[in-house]
User: Fold this.
Amino acid sequence: MKVYFDNAATTPLLPEVRDAMLPFLGEAFGNPSSLHDWGDAARMDVDKAREQVARLIGATKPEEVIFTSCGTESNNFAIKGIALAQQSKGKHIIISAVEHFSVLHSARTMEKLGFELTLVPVDKYGVVDPDDIRKNIRKDTILVSVMHANGEVGTIEPIKEIGKITRENNIVFHTDAVATAGYIPIDVKELGVDALSLAGSQFYGPKGSGALWMRRGVRIMPLLDGGTQEGGRRAGTENVPAIVGLGKAAELAMADMAARAEHLTFLRDRLLNEMPSKVDHVVVTGHPTNRVPWNASFTVEFIEGESMLMMLNAKGVAVSSGSACTSKALKASHVLIAMCLSHELSQGSLLFGIGIDNKPEDVDYVLEEMPPIVDRLRQMSPLYSKFVKASKGGK
Amino acid sequence: MPVYSAKVMEHFTNPRNVGEIENPDGIGEEGNPVCGDMMTFYIKVKDNRLDDVKFKTFGCGAAIAVSSMVSEMAKGKTIEEALKITPQLVADELEGLPKQKFHCSNLGAQALHKAIEDYLSKKKGGTH
Assistant:
């Protein structure tokens, strides 16, 4: 049996999305900037995609959508571009401690360039307290960035509440919606954000597609200079097939959102509820209920994530982990550490990214395969034998 | 997941000598759960030879394969021979380890040496 539960890493391309893209990998190869039929054909579909993406996030002006190459680019662009454009007003940036590396590391780069950075903490579920944002705002604060939801633990952040605070203080507010776009309803006006990032590879669109929505009037410095593509904010010949695919994926996600969410939530809750009864000493990470439909994350005590991953892979199951050993940087997930999980516990992290193609049988299979894998690794684990000895000794 | 050699995968899938030794002659522990890998080696010594070697390991696939390989390499060797087992030799026997795994997961030789040192110091102290 083959079970793909790593939709946190990336989702497959929907056949309808691929079909929409195919002409642009063939006869419709024109450059959208060109003033002839070939260019017009490409431009029309790029504009259509812009409308499709705008609709997905409740933006009324499609021209506020800037196409990028991925979520990482959108976040880099938002943090660096907005900070650089606002620096005459101040040089202080606030982000949460659980942001994706593309936000966190962009902010760190700005720090090296003379900006000041405040990381606001999260509670044990990974939730930012809007009051912590308020408390950290200074006269020179120019940008706040808090993710809509965290991809590693699924927790949805109180963006609306933070948006009220940033508006009162006239500070640009960016949210990384890579984990939520296409999964839960987004209305940029209602959220009160000024900029929002999303990525096609996370909701059945193509890799190499992303977008940054920015409310009109927000100033940003381009990272790519050149021609006047994307309203002069992001130069370079458009990746038309990817843009068209992103648009189609947005349209499909919008049309199927309720049904998809119901299906994903059902599978998610089965995993979240049944895993701890199948395996001892498993902790659900992230918020128990206020989380994205596709994310079921855990930590398994006394064992390490990569070895679990390898054993699950041997059984045909694909998942991911935030353990140090699974990261190339060899550091435990900063998200789990920010949630005050011990390093030891965070090594046992396991993330199930549920997809719309997953079936209840996939959950059954994983729930059946997990206990022997955990047992086997615990039989090898010195931490587990210490725990067993200590608990025997205590009785 | 890093790309592991067939040998690493084989040892990870069927690790040798997992477990603890009751009343061991030496115990050695290396690493800690913070960095992700931790190994405990147990040895039994008879006539200056490692009569039995067992281990318990918390860690990634490489850490488990390394422990298994070290236990296999050490078993039956004299104390002097076992002390010559180095991380590089272990990696070579495993047909290589991914670069980033070499230092953090390749603690088996050190853990074994600590177990031997433990044995030698007990012997010296006359508690053995």
Strands of chain B lie at 26-32, 37-46, 49-58.
